Amino acid sequence: MGFTYRNERLFAEELDCEAIAEEYGTPCYVYSRAAMEAALAQYHQALKGCEYLVCYAVKANSNIAVLDTLARCGAGFDIVSVGELERVLAAGGDPGKVVFSGVVKRPDEMRRALQVGIRCFNVESAAELEVLQSVAAELNVRAPVSVRVNPDVDAGTHPYISTGLRENKFGVATDAAMALLRRATTMENIHITGLDCHIGSQLVDMSPLLDALQQLLLMVDALQAEGIHIRHLDLGGGIGVRYRDEEPPAVADYIAAVREALGDRDLGLVFEPGRSIVANAGVLLTRVHYLKETDAHSFALVDAAMNDFIRPALYQAWVDIQATSPNDAEPRLWNIVGPVCETGDFLGKDRELALASGTLLAIHGAGAYGFVMSSNYNTRPRAAEVMIDGNKPYLIRERETIGDLLRGEHRLPQ
Ligand code: LLP
């Protein structure tokens, strides 16, 4: 689904990637509409019969065409800034299906979210709850709140994307969360609706997720005994994908395990998947410009860099890199590196590939945390984004121009 090789040529749905690169240039992100729809459908399928909401984590890929596609398939959204909220609204998403996560929500962000009527604030500290109470009081509304619990479990993922350990900045430890919830019930403009957690990303083992769930359930039961009724549990995102040979849990298995753990409790479920919806629905196309041999390495110098796709440089993430069509060169080991002036600017190391100058490469698994993490470092305009729907390509983001980059900068007066 989405990206397939036909006679050794890479196709995005019905279109040859070489033709896409010809038309839109490189580097260029290419997404498959069908692939993202299918990934979301797995969640819907597994949750049939429950009261639930799948809130796609906007941060994973926030292009408004992506949000529009998912909104049309019934997705809600997990946002972490008012900017993401405006994207959801611009994409036609329903604010009533939005949950707002993040450790620093400014009062103006809270105000806007309350005005458009979001589903829930995932509150991450006592101080934040106080500010939300006062913003909601100003507007004379009640803010729906879920408290983000930090369950202190080791998600077993890269330390930079592990979020559920006591030492992390996220959420509130269980004891403190209980106290916070009690306090919240006394606040006039706060309405407690749920508990949530998100323990990390690219999880390939579901046991930490289920451990965290058990802790939330203990809290739900204890709160119930105190007369505080929790309506929903939001288990965050985190399900990993296969980039190489990882074996992440199937969404269906994970959700079946969650449903079983709930027993007969009357709880709605919210999930905030990002990566598992879009990672494998996107590739980054980049062209080899030069080949360069040194005593130590063979370098393929390509036109995408760490500013376009930072995951290898930042997390030493391994992503699959393949030529999009065959050529006659002898396969050998290459370091695939970009134009940015940093030794950390690599996309892949020691990859066995048949390359020539002009070869088009596809970086697979680039649909999540790809374009959204790109920057203008080295004054490099950000890449174009194209969505493929069957045999039709849609330019969903124009390539930036140098003019775009200089806009808003000013010289000093003479
Ligand atoms: N909910 C919350 C509160 C989150 O912080 C995140 C991701 C998600 C949901 C979505 O998690 P997912 O289903 O995508 O794992 N840039 C990193 C990943 C950072 C994830 C941050 N939080 C990477 O490229 O690996």
TrEMBL record:
PANTHER family: DIAMINOPIMELATE DECARBOXYLASE, GROUP IV DECARBOXYLASE. Homodimer. Transmembrane segments: none annotated. GO terms for molecular function: diaminopimelate decarboxylase activity. Belongs to the Orn/Lys/Arg decarboxylase class-II family. LysA subfamily. The lineage of its organism: Bacteria, Pseudomonadati, Pseudomonadota, Gammaproteobacteria, Cellvibrionales. It is an enzyme of class 4 (lyase). Its cofactor is pyridoxal 5'-phosphate. Residues 28-367 form the Orn/DAP/Arg decarboxylase 2 C-terminal domain. Pyridoxal 5'-phosphate binds at residues 238, 272-275, 369. This is Diaminopimelate decarboxylase. Specifically catalyzes the decarboxylation of meso-diaminopimelate (meso-DAP) to L-lysine. Its EC number is 4.1.1.20. It catalyses: meso-2,6-diaminopimelate + H(+) = L-lysine + CO2. The keyword Amino-acid biosynthesis applies. PROSITE patterns: ODR_DC_2_1 (PS00878), ODR_DC_2_2 (PS00879). Keywords: Amino-acid biosynthesis, Decarboxylase, Lyase, Lysine biosynthesis, Pyridoxal phosphate. NCBIfam families: lysA. Residues 35-279 form the Orn/DAP/Arg decarboxylase 2 N-terminal domain. The keyword rRNA-binding does not apply. HAMAP family: LysA. Substrate binds at residues 275, 311, 315, 342, 369. The modification N6-(pyridoxal phosphate)lysine is found at residue 59.
